[in-house]
Amino acid sequence: MDLPLFLQQLLNGISLGSLYALIAIGYTMVYGIIRLINFAHGDILMVSTYFAYFGISVYALPWWLSVIIAILLTALLGILIDLGAYRPVRHAPRISALITAIGVSFLLENLGLVVFGGRPKAFYRPDFLDKTYELGGVHVFSLSIWVPLVTAFLLALVFLLLYRTRVGAAMRAVAKDMEMVQLMGIDVNRVISLAFAVGSALAAAGGIMWAMKYPQINPLMGIIPGLKAFVAAVIGGIGNIHGAVLGGLLLGITEILLVAFLPSLAGYRDAFAFVLLILILLFRPTGLAGKDTIG
Amino acid sequence: MSRKLIFSVLVFVIPCLPFFLPSLSLAGEPIRIGVYLPMTGPVAAFGQMEWAGIQAAHQMRPTVLGRQVELVLVDEKSDRIEAANAVSRLLKKEKVQAIIGSATSSNTMAGAALSEKAKIPMVSPTATLPLVTQNKKYVFRVCFIDSFQGEAAARFAYQSLRARRVVVIVDRAQDYCVGLASYFKRAFTHLGGKVVSMVYCQTGDQDFSAQLTSILASQPDLLYLPNYYAEDALIARQARELNLNVPILSADGAQAPELIKIGGKAVEGLYLLAHFAPEGAATPLAKEFMKFFKKTRREETSGFHALGADAYFVLLDAIKRAGRTDGDAIRTALASTSEFGGVSGTIKIGPDGNAVKSAVILQVRGGQFKYLTIVRPW
Fold first, then answer.
1. Which residues of chain A make contact with B243, given a CB cutoff of 8 A?
2. Where are the domains of chain A?
3. What is the pLDDT of residue A131?
4. Is the Cβ–Cβ distance between B170 and A266 less than 8 Å?
5. Under an 8 A CB cutoff, do A120 and B216 touch?
6. Which of A217, A286, B110, B328 could form a Cys-Cys staple with B83, CB 3.0–4.6 A?
């Protein structure tokens, strides 16, 4: 493999990895704050792409407006899911909440099948994201540049929110000790609702970028990105936001390089991601970036 | 006293009535045909189109042997385990007399094993892998098979497109794709061309950038994609994003509106082998069906509509010739189907259960599948 080809593959990897990272940020943030692995994250992502699809293709709104509306609606959906599904089991053992999350995931998938139908829909891609440039033998697709930029921007926003605002302080406090925060007179439920809103909005941003990159959406599309983002979050150390980005990039790049160097294993790339998950859980359960969680 | 007696007789008799009813109305009892198709999941487009074709065919010809035909649909969710479950439900719970399904080869094989055991005949509209009917007495199909399709594609690539160096991208999770790729490779190599590399992916994959980048270096003059529409549309798009602008040849699994909707500009000019083109339809039944379909569904007949309808028509014809509805009688009649003027052409089913038919070559132009030429079986 010559250098331009290797650089091309590396770029492919960064582009895929930053998508995983973007989705993993929301995953890990919700875990960091309320210690819940939100298995419905991928399905919330799926619903958000349908919101955007309806805005663009059915109601013929400008794409940027549809994206904003889709993100807001998804944030609302996150709040509603928390209200309806997670709040009733907040003080139950953690396993109950985990199972509830799996239930929400199935509910969204099957609701999607009934409401949206099982056939894939084509997703819109704005023209400026649909260009290919050539730089020294490497083909740079404009969307592949935008995805890491959006990921970095949203990462910065999440940090601003957590470390520079009062709500962020409240979230970090909830992450440390929920009972104590309640005793201090802070409305824990509201803080958690907000965390879900932000987490779901991040899922929406990730989902819409995903749908622009792979422009076909269907009700089961969230499963694999959700699982991959979960793997990415665990690799980086779940609950650790830096770690999620690191894990996402690492997963994306190794997946691409695996296919590039061992093409005969290309059919097993998903299996590879899950083997990686098992290895991390066996040998470094707190992840590569360690236990530097929110709080 | 007598009133009491009548009352007690009624109390005893009424609950028993349902048990006698079936034997009383046997002559008018509907014939139940089970249908299992992927109505959801990655290949839902096939299932939904075939189901639309079957339903329209059923509306056109709702009776046989003076009895109503009743269709029972079960979704197999594009999953082979669900396909086996669906067939077992049709056999055990719904007690159907014959089965239509499924759309893809892997899932048809999963279901066929069960209907073979139960001696209930099954007709697949579009399972093209040769293995599907091999060593099966009760399994039939109304489509051509992949050994024919692969060779036809190789000839078209070599002779008409003048391709010499071909890269094949294969969905390893589908028996259909793996089989078709190897038939193509054998025939293309035999003609004197070279398959420079065979690259793999998996159903549901969204990112093909790694595979496509490695193809860039081998400089092919044609991409052969024997996969389903969802993967082919994304592969075509990502190939163009990497400036890999060689012609693409695909197969019957790509013929769904989604290929064009998702593929957009990237699939313009794409060639594919298919089962049916309205321009090539000649039989009276085809003309009647296309008119009926347009009237009731407000849609043009596509290949999967036509084959769904043909599975139904061929089965109905067999039941008519058998004169009975037991599995063995229908099976014998199916196996002797010859010169049946179906929607997708004239169908002859051999004792091996396979239909001998011609294929058409289409090209995507202006966002539509356009008919190029017909390939007759040799």
1. 132, 134, 139
2. 3-283
3. 86
4. no
5. no
6. B110
Q: What is the CATH number of domain B147-274?
A: 3.40.50.2300
SS3 B44: helix
Whole-angstrom Cα distance, residue A212 to residue A130?
9
Name chain A contacts of B196, Cβ cutoff 8 Å.
none
B219-249 confidence digits (pLDDT tens): 999 999 999 999 999 999 999 999 899 999 9
How many whole angstroms separate alpha carbon B170 and alpha carbon B188?
16
Regions of chain B short of the pLDDT cut 70: 1-27
SS3 B252: helix
Q: Where are the domains of chain B?
A: 26-144+280-356, 147-274
C-alpha to C-alpha distance for A261 and A251, rounded to whole angstroms: 15
Structure tokens at B260: 């064009």
Tokens of B81: 């385990």
Q: What are the tens digits of pLDDT across the range B127-151?
A: 999 999 999 999 999 999 999 999 9
Please tell me the distance in Å from B168's CA to the nearest CA on chain A: 13
Say yes or no for a CB contact (<8 Å) between A5 and B204.
no
Residues of B in contact with A255 (CB under 8 A): 210
- The class that CATH gives domain A3-283 is mainly alpha
Per DSSP (E only), the strands in B110-225 are 122-124, 139-141, 165-171, 194-201, 222-225
Fold of the CATH domain B26-144+280-356: Rossmann fold (3.40.50)
pTM over 0.95: no
* Mean pLDDT in residue range A180-204: 94
Distances (CA, A) of B69 to B33, B57, B286: 7, 11, 21
pLDDT of residue B323: 94
CA-based end-to-end distance of chain B: 84
